[in-house]
Request: fold
Amino acid sequence: MRELVKQFLKHGVVGSVAFLVDFALMVILHERLGMDPLAASVVSYVASVVVSYWGSMKWVFSRRDDMSRRKEFVIYMVLSLIGLLLNSACMWLGERSLALAGIDWSHEAHYMAVKVLATFVVTFYNFFSRRRWLDSHDPAHPDYDDDLMW
Reply:
């Protein structure tokens, strides 16, 4: 269990850097270039995946011996696409919820708050899906627990 927590904390560090890229780019695209917040969120998320892939596969997850880099990258991108869909769904739901309350989410910090909440949700999906499909999970390790796989 200790190894899982340590790995999740490393994921948090990498995810924080990726989030900064994601969030900053989203704000720039919306505030400076006038892009719709949902569209800006999609573009920024895709850009942050590059940072996330590099950090995750370099520092968080152990590379699997039975998987080529190409296959690893394809799986990472498929999992990231699902994460993008989850992120976009959270953003859309946030926008709809605010609209029902009579709030235009594209003004002030409303869309930013929705992005933070979406990131919180997607972080857990990203960690556990990548751990399941990309990490080597060494059963010889004393902290290995197959029940934590899914």
About this structure: Residues 59 and 150 are 22 Å apart (CA to CA). The chain has a mean pLDDT of 89.
